[in-house]
TrEMBL record:
Belongs to the cation diffusion facilitator (CDF) transporter (TC 2.A.4) family. The keyword Acetylation does not apply. Residues 11-202 form the Cation efflux protein transmembrane domain. Gene3D superfamilies: Cation efflux protein transmembrane domain, Cation efflux protein, cytoplasmic domain. It is found in: Membrane. The keyword Transmembrane applies. SUPFAM superfamilies: Cation efflux protein cytoplasmic domain-like (SSF160240), Cation efflux protein transmembrane domain-like (SSF161111). The lineage of its organism: Bacteria, Pseudomonadati, Pseudomonadota, Alphaproteobacteria, Rhodobacterales. The chain crosses the membrane at residues 7-29, 41-59, 75-93, 113-131, 152-171. It is a multi-pass membrane protein. PANTHER family: MITOCHONDRIAL METAL TRANSPORTER 1-RELATED. It comes from Sulfitobacter sediminis. This is Cation diffusion facilitator family transporter. Keywords: Membrane, Transmembrane, Transmembrane helix, Transport. Residues 210-284 form the Cation efflux protein cytoplasmic domain.
């Protein structure tokens, strides 16, 4: 089983465990904030399942109907996760509003905070693992899932502070108030996840730093050519796509032009694994003098 798939399956197991702990913490205390925290964990479980499905689909090889592969499936999962984060925040705001209208004392707050703290620690460790490994594997779904879990960690910490202050001061209004404050932070986080995922679905170009790296490889590996222009890039999940026009001397043979293309593709593969390169060879009179100048 691929590493990304193992991590996605692990998120399901962690999600079930954390949801159980947070639900127990709410049941012991009756805290609106802890209830909201538990409700967000149901979203964690749903998004972990979505990430698992997306990674399985994205791992499928290209076929006749999807000749460029299924990599964008991970972006759909990440968008779904962002939307569900936002929905969870709105639901928490609703619960906080009812709590503000009728605040009530909490039962067994110490026990509830201890159990919720254990769930938070588990989430924090797993969020770190997901984000780190997701970036290493270039998996948007895993990174989005990890970032979602980090928002859950922030939520839990904020909730714990609110419950603790309410217990120490007797101001039970702090319980739903803290839930509302944290919900606003979750809204902001969810909107960022959606924005980043939509950029991938819209075929956003690779970063400026990566573009510079690609141009350096072309300039170094295209000896014998004249220039490269009309460089276009995009990324889809863990895959990168690059295309450009390569200008060669008019008298150059097809064999020699093909050898140059092979060198360029090999050089790009060394610095950017899992990249598809499409090169359109043109004669010298097509030169634009605006592209990548080849180092001869």
């Amino acid at each position: 089983m691929p590493t990304a798939l193992k991590l996605a399956a692990g998120s399901l197991i962690i999600g079930i465990l954390v949801l159980g702990l947070k639900t127990l913490a709410w049941w012991l205390t009756g805290s609106v904030a802890l209830l909201s925290d538990a409700l967000e964990s149901t979203v964690n479980l749903a998004t972990a399942f979505a990430a698992l499905v997306a990674i399985r689909v994205a791992a499928r090889p290209a076929d006749a109907t999807h000749p460029f592969g299924h990599h964008k499936a991970e972006f759909f999962s990440a968008v779904l996760e962002g939307v569900m984060i936002i929905l969870a925040a709105l639901f928490i705001l609703r619960e906080a509003f009812h709590g503000l209208l009728a605040p009530v004392p909490l039962d067994a707050p110490i026990e509830g905070l201890a159990i919720n703290g254990l769930a938070t620690a588990i989430n924090g460790v797993w969020a770190f693992v997901l984000v780190r490994q997701g970036r290493r594997l270039v998996s948007p779904a895993l990174v989005a899932d990890g970032k979602h879990l980090w928002t859950d960690v922030y939520t839990s910490v904020g909730v714990a502070v609110g419950v603790l202050l309410a217990m120490l001061t007797g101001w039970w209004l702090l319980d739903p108030l803290m839930a509302a404050v944290v919900a606003v932070n979750i809204l902001w986080s969810g909107s960022r996840v959606v924005k980043e995922s939509l950029s991938g679905l819209m075929d956003e170009a690779l970063s400026d730093g990566t573009l510079t790296l690609i141009e350096e490889v072309i300039a170094a590996e295209a000896q014998g050519a004249v220039e490269a222009h009309d460089l276009k890039t995009r990324h889809a999940g863990s895959a990168n796509f690059i295309e450009f026009h390569l200008v060669v001397p008019a008298e150059m043979t097809v064999y020699d032009a093909h050898e140059i293309c092979d060198r360029i593709e090999a050089g790009i593969a060394r610095v950017l694994p899992n990249t598809r390169v499409t090169i359109h060879v043109e004669p010298e009179h097509k030169s634009k003098d605006t592209g990548v100048i080849v180092l001869n």
